[in-house]
Each structure stands twice: as structure tokens, then as C-alpha cells.
Amino acid sequence: MAFADQYGPWALVTGASAGIGAEFARQIAARGVNVALVARRRERLAALGEEIEARHGVRTLAIAADLSEPDFLAPLTEALGARHVGLLVNNAGSGVTGEFLDHDLDDELRMLALNCRAPLILAHHFGARMRDDRRGGIIMLASIAGIVPTPQFAHYSATKAWNRYLGEGLHEELARDGVDVVSLCPGLTESEFFEHANVDPSGWPSPLRASIMNAEDVAAAGLKGLGGKSQVVPGLSYRMLMRASRLAPGGLSPWLVDRVMRFALPSHSDRG
Ligand SMILES: NC(=O)c1ccc[n+]([C@@H]2O[C@H](COP(=O)([O-])OP(=O)(O)OC[C@H]3O[C@@H](n4cnc5c(N)ncnc54)[C@H](OP(=O)(O)O)[C@@H]3O)[C@@H](O)[C@H]2O)c1
User: Fold this and answer.
1) What are this entry's molecular-function GO terms (predicted)?
2) With 236 labelled, which of 70, 74, 155, 183 sits at a CA distance of 20 to 30 A?
């Protein structure tokens, strides 16, 4: 089935105002599907919508919403109106590095709502119509940090494991109904994420900096995997790293990851 027939007429991309989400929106539009763009910064969404409409001749809709708020769904569906969503990209997410116990619990709960509660609600809401239609797709944004437990990013890593598991479970469950689901597990990717996560790669050794992927390639890998794989890890080096981590007894050691994280995050490493 052609992309637009399987996943159209509308896609809904959360976190479309920056990074990987904006790239998803561009690449989905290039395949002839209209895109509803969701994030908090309305002007960014409107500018991206204009760019996409001019370049690809599809329609866009900007929906300003804070997905960490408890009641985000009703205004979002109201803004969508009768538009029929055949593709959901559960992309919006954030996380802050550092020691778990030094983080404010309310901030962690807001991250949990954004990274897990919102994608759960959206997958449940839009998935129901997809199952009835016997077509559609859902992309869950996980991470390599959702494959390897990541000290100094522990709660974020747990939220990404949650997305990975939900996506991979639904991949099998919804395949029977003609709905494609994939968990996308990027490694380090150029976006605004580092800034929000309190990470500064400028001082990293060049091999580590060279491992940073661009958002365009990450989104492309997710769309390529949709309809086939249950999990996609973009980039050969990250795929090899994840394979090696599975071969290590008990997985890649959190002890080792902790050392790497403390090296990469010198501001967090002063507790010995
Ligand atoms: N970059 C990486 O290295 C990396 C690696 C693995 C996985 N990921 C995952 O990839 C996804 C996209 O991240 P990115 O790298 O593209 O980060 P980004 O550039 O920081 O983009 C995050 C997006 O989420 C939106 N967002 C943040 N808080 C929101 C809220 N409360 N309500 C609604 N939207 C919100 C932001 O828009 P507004 O600020 O306008 O709301 C923005 O559009 C995330 O799920 C992240 O966990 C990223």
C-alpha cells in the first residue's frame, strides 16, 4: 500500500517545533500526508507549517499544547476536528542529566507525564480508530538509553525503556489489525535536546562528537522501519554498540555507563 493510503490523510507529530519531530513532519509531508504539528511554541509550529505547505503542497495544522498537562487531550482533539489521523508520531520528550536525588520530584513527575503518560493517552485514543480502519501507524520515540540503563540519566532512561516496551508490544498486538508500530531508539542526535538535558558536547573527544547523528537521518530511519521492524536503532555504530551490549553478561554494565556519563558530564561528576 502507498504511504499516504496506509498512513493518511493526516499525521499527528508531537514535539514538531524542533529537532527530530520537525524532521518527521517534513519527511511525512514529502510523502503526501497532511501534518498536525503539536508542541508548546505556536510560532515555531506556524513557521514550519508554512514551510511544509509551500514545499510539499500538503495541509498543516499547528496545535499549541503542553502535553505534560493532565487535560491536554480534549483541546487537542477539538483543534483537530474531523481530521482523520492515520499516523501518530509520539516524539515529544525531554530529560535532564544528573543525580536522580538532586532533581526536584515535581520536575521528574512532569517529565514522566510528557514522556510516558502523553504517548500512552495518544496511542490509546488514535490507535482505536486505526484498529477499526485496519490501517495506520504509530512511532514511539525511545532511545538507546531505553535499551541500556543509564546512570546520571536514570529516570529519563526508564521512561525511554517504557516507550520501547509499549511500542514493541503493540507492534505484535496491532499487526493483526493492519496497524504498524515501531519503537525508534536513537543515540546522540543533534537537536535542542542537549541544551535542555544540560549536556555540552563541545568539550567531548572527537570520536564521541562524531557519533552525534543528525535529526534528518534519525527520522528517515524511523519512517523506513515503520511497517516492518518492531525496533529501529539508527546508525551502524549504535546498532553495533547495542548488539555488543546484549552479548555482555547481564547487558552493558551500568557501572561502565556511569563512568562514561561522568566523563561526558563533568559538572555532575564531583561526588566521587
Ligand atoms: N536528541 C537526542 O540525542 C535523542 C536521543 C534519543 C532519543 N531522543 C528522543 O527524541 C525525541 C525528540 O527529541 P529531540 O532530540 O528532537 O529534542 P528537542 O529538539 O528538544 O525537541 C523536543 C520537542 O518536544 C517538545 N516538547 C517539550 N516539552 C513539551 C511539552 N511539555 N508539551 C509539548 N511538547 C513539548 C518541544 O517543543 P516545545 O518546547 O515547543 O514545546 C520540541 O518540539 C524525544 O522523545 C527524546 O527523548 C532524543
Assistant:
1) oxidoreductase activity
2) 155
